[in-house]
Every structure is written in C-alpha cells, then in structure tokens.
Amino acid sequence: MRDIDDGMPGAVDALKALYPRTGRAHVVGVTGAPGTGKSTICDRLIGSFRAEGKKVGVVAVDPSSPYSGGAILGDRIRMQEHATDPGVFIRSMATRGHLGGLSASTGDVVRVMDAMGMDVVIVETVGVGQDEIEVARTAHTTVVVLVPGMGDDVQAIKAGLLEIADCFAVNKSDRDGADKVVRELQVMLDMRPRREGDWEPPVVKTAAIHGEGIGDLRGALDRHAEWAAGSGRSGQVLTDRRKSELGEIMRGMIAKAVERRIEAYPGGIDGLANDVRAAGKDPYTAAEEILKGAMDGLKESGGR
Amino acid sequence: MRDIDDGMPGAVDALKALYPRTGRAHVVGVTGAPGTGKSTICDRLIGSFRAEGKKVGVVAVDPSSPYSGGAILGDRIRMQEHATDPGVFIRSMATRGHLGGLSASTGDVVRVMDAMGMDVVIVETVGVGQDEIEVARTAHTTVVVLVPGMGDDVQAIKAGLLEIADCFAVNKSDRDGADKVVRELQVMLDMRPRREGDWEPPVVKTAAIHGEGIGDLRGALDRHAEWAAGSGRSGQVLTDRRKSELGEIMRGMIAKAVERRIEAYPGGIDGLANDVRAAGKDPYTAAEEILKGAMDGLKESGGR
C-alpha cells in the first residue's frame, strides 16, 4: 500500500479500479483520549473477530513527528501477537506533508483493506477533536472509549462525543468511578433530542486488559451494523458515507496538488518562504499566486 | 471577527491589510489531552500576563459537533472571570464545513488579535495528534501539558510530543507519580539527538488549580521567546513561521473554494452524494470533476 499512502502517480487509477469491490467490510472506529486503553480494546476485538474466522484489517492512526515526517510508534507493539496471523492486516498511518492531515489517506487504506476482502476494518485514532470527527465520518460504527477519573474536562468532551458515538466503552471499569461515568453518560444520552427509530448508543463497561466486557461490546457493534443496514436507513447511511468519502478524497487530492506545486518551487517550501519574506509580500497574496499555479497543475493531471 | 471565521467575501482583503501590523505578539500554544487541566493553566497564565498589564488574546479550539457544525462549549466557563476584563479577548473556534479542519481559521484569528495589539496570544487546543502539530506550527512557544497516571499510552504519546514541545508542564503535580513523569520526560529529552545551541525544553511541575508552578512556567515561556529572538535564529524562526502560515492559508482558501462549489451544486453535498451514488460513479472520479470546477472558481476570484 506504499504507493497509495505516498500519493504516487497511478494511485488514483488503482483506487478507482478497486472502488467497485469496496462496501462489504464493517468499518469500526475506536477512539478516545490517551490512557483510555483503546489499543487493548482493539486487540481484544481483533481476537473476538478472529475467533469467528473473520478477516480483520487494522488502521492505527499514530501521532507522528511533524518534523521528521515519520511515525513514532510504527505498528503497535501490543498488536504484535496478531501480526503473524495471516487473517490480520495491520497498517500504521503517519502524517506527512504540510497540507494533508491524518485522514487524507486513512480512507484510502480502509478502502483497500475492504477491497482485499477484510470482513472488519478497525480504525484506531488517538486524540479528541478533529481526529474524532474524521473517524466518525470514515467508520460505520464508532466506539468512544472513556475511563473513570479523567477530570472535569471529560464532562465537556463527552458532550461533543455524544454526537459521534454509536457506542460508549467505559474501560478500566474495575477502577472506582466507572458506574458514575456510566450514569453520567446515560443521563446525557437521555437528555439529548431524538426521534423515533434513532439509534440509542449503548454504554458498555469493559476491562479490556482482563478481557471483560468484550462480548458485550461485540454485541453492541453487531447490533449497530444490523440497525444501520435496516430498512429505510441504508440509503441515508450510504449517502452519508459517500459524502465523507468525497470530502476526504478531495482534501487529499488538493493537498497533493499544492504540495507538488511547492516542491516544484526552487528550494521548495523554504525557498518560497524566504522569497515571500524577502519580497515583503503578505502570505495571503503569496498563497493566491501559488494556488493559481497548483490549480492549473491539478486540471492538467486530472487530480492525480 | 465573524466575517473572517466564516470566510465571508472581503475577509482576505482585510487580512492582507492587517498583515503588516502582525508579528509583535508572542503566540503561546497550550496543548494536551482531556483531563490534564490545560484550561486552568491558560487561566492562570492570563492572570500572570495581566498582572504585568499585558493585553492577552485567547483562542480556544473546542471540540465541536460534526453534525450541528457548532461549538459545544462556547467560550470556556472557567475563563469567564477574565471575560469582563477589557485587556483580554477570548475567542472560541468551531469546526465548520467538510473540508477545512480546525486550523484553517485559527491562524487568521491569531493574526487579527496580533494586529489588534495583543501582547500575548494563547492558543488552547484539545487533543493529541493533528491538532498538536497545527499548534506547533502556529505558536511561537508550545507548552505540552501532561499529568501523572495516564497509563502506558502516554509513554508513546510523549515521544511524539518531544518534537513539538518547547516546554512541558507536568500538571496536577500534587498527585502521586508526578516526579516519575518528570524523570521519564527528562530521560527522553536527554536521549534525543540535538545540536549545540538547540533549545532544551524545560520540564515544569504545576498544580494550576492551586496556582503552583505558574511563575516557573511563565519564566520558561519568556526564556523561550528570548531564545527564539536571539541572534542567528530569528531569520530561521521567521522563515518557519512564514512556511506554516503559507500552508495554513492555502489550505483554508482551497477548502473554501471547494465548499462554495459544493454549495452551488443542486441540493449541496447531499445532492451531490446522491447523484454520485445514483450514477454508480466512483468518488475519485466525482472528486476530480468537482475540483476542476472549484479550481476555475478559485482562479477567477483570486482565492477569495
């Protein structure tokens, strides 16, 4: 998959060709703050799907160095027991370039895994904020992982997470305060406006390190997948998914077009920044000038 | 600042006009996971700057609902004691649109506050990952906030944060394990490759809720600002800043051009997604078609 991640020429053609073979995998997003143990939850979920003979793809979106352009963690150590299993494909994503963002190629990798015949693709993201929104858009079912005792900020965060969570996992539930988190979530869920037939996100207690609650979590994921495929809903679900894909694909194409334009500038981004500074130009005017060139390039290459 | 955030026509002209008046504020990024108490740290820092009569701008990048398009938190409640102080300007950012991302307009707001004469602009971000990278690029000095007892994930995260942190605050340092976090960070900092004259990120213990360690943190911020302005370095610092600005401004302009194109489509993004689906088109081909149209629009309007 190296060529896709790197935006090599021909990648878009390959993705176009693959596209008709996508749409069969169940894409599960697992997201939550550092320290919530979501890697362990992913690990247990892989085990649970593998026990049924399902093929599992894992896309781990790692924090990466903005300066080296490389991933810090590489493939997750805790997932290594699955790494030698031929039914499990693990891919760590790194952030690259100045303009892309994490999600530019995550969706491409998910679609490749889908086309390869994975039954389930798990997308694990670190962090709260933009990442979570992207997961919600890429995944069919989003699990938000919380733990007891993370302070007041979590209260506020939870409100934002209500919008994207199809399921909550309160992990490390052997710690004090787990029931309080469950209750608070339930109150927030009960308070939010909803219509008949809306999905009611279940709140599942897990202690993934001990394997506890994973069966319940699996049950919740499966029920959500069934619900989403249900009559009357699948049309909207497919449209929403197509919307996310379109946005994400455009963002990636644009970022690559601009990056190519900057690379073609003598001295690259450094040369450009120096020239802008030396000319006493404001960056808005400079950005407009570069973009006009990038747009021409994009039009000629057809987005490739 | 509504027009800038919303990408209203004329905003780019206003930003061009403001630009020569920017570059005087010290832009401080404060970033860390939920539950680390970074809002409290920001609050204490505002107090510390205000005690010296400095004017302070605060840009709080809130997690926001991907569906409602609005901020969940609004201006931070804990910052309200400063909200009536005429020397403090607080602005919460919401994520909007399908293609932008958080940082598209954060930089614009920072530059407006700078041009308005703020001595310090504090940018607070929630989350680990892409957000952090953006902060590191926008801010002159980035403070990464950690707390004791957040589990193994934090170890991994720390490695990524080494690259972007100009200063570490180990907050809630009255809790068990604070010294261990400090030692671990120090070991990691000692191990990383560095050259003579490189900045050595200090590790400061804080208990912001009790106001402890804020003086030390302020000292670290001021020393970093002095270091960055030092002989031989300011040229590179200015070039780096110009690079971040250029990337961020281009991303924002393109996102807006594409969003305008999508809005002009009958039925907007829903209509587009439905048509793509009905036509059995793959989203890569559809994305190329939309982008070509958006590029034409961008060229005609000169990026506005």
Concise structural overview:
The structure is a homodimer of 304-residue chains. By secondary structure, the first copy, chain A, is α/β, with parallel strands linked by helices.
Q: List the domain count of chain A as a whole number.
A: 2
From the structure provided, what is the oligomeric state, counting identical versus distinct chains? homodimer
Query: What is the N-to-C succession of helices and strands of chain A?
Result: HHEHEHEHEHEHEHEHHHH
**Biggest protein-protein contact in the assembly:** A-B, 88 and 88 residues
**What name does the CATH topology of the largest domain in chain A carry?**
Rossmann fold
Q: In total, how many beta strands of chain A?
A: 7
Percentage beta strand of chain A: 5-15%
Number of helices of chain A: 12
Structural class of chain A: alpha/beta
CATH architecture of the largest domain in chain A: 3-Layer(aba) Sandwich
CATH class designation of the largest domain in chain A: Alpha Beta
Please estimate the helix content of chain A. 40-55%
Largest sheet of chain A: 7 strands, parallel
From the N-terminal CA to the C-terminal CA of chain A, the straight-line distance is 17 Å
Q: Which strand order does the major sheet of chain A show?
A: 3-2-4-1-5-6-7
Task: Write out the CATH superfamily name of the largest domain in chain A.
Answer: P-loop containing nucleotide triphosphate hydrolases
Radius of gyration of chain A: 21 Å
The best one-word shape of chain A is globular
